[in-house]
Amino acid sequence: MAGTVNFTGAVDKELLRRAKIIAAKSDTSINVLLNAELRHFVETFEAAEAAENQNFKTLLDFSLGRVDDTNAMAALGIDSEEDLFLLMSQAHLPMPRLPATTTQAMVNSLHALLP
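and the corresponding structure tokens:
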């Protein structure tokens, strides 16, 4: 059995609070939750890599905002955003988020439409 190692990382304060609630409701620890998710991510990535399947990498790039939906769909050979979102869900990857500046610009443009 492999040993464990402590590491330091940064987590959004509100996210950590919510994770603590989930861990408590699940009668487990944040450490167990993080290990399970990280293990799933690594094993999925390694399995796709071993099979020489680039789909997971494409989905990860989309999740991290490295490629947009159009390029991700082209790389995956799909033509539906619904299929892309289903694949993201099946891969257990979070949906990408727009940068805060882009979101604020969209809000500003909507406010400019108001009388």
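(Above: one complete record from the training split.) The radius of gyration is 18 Å.
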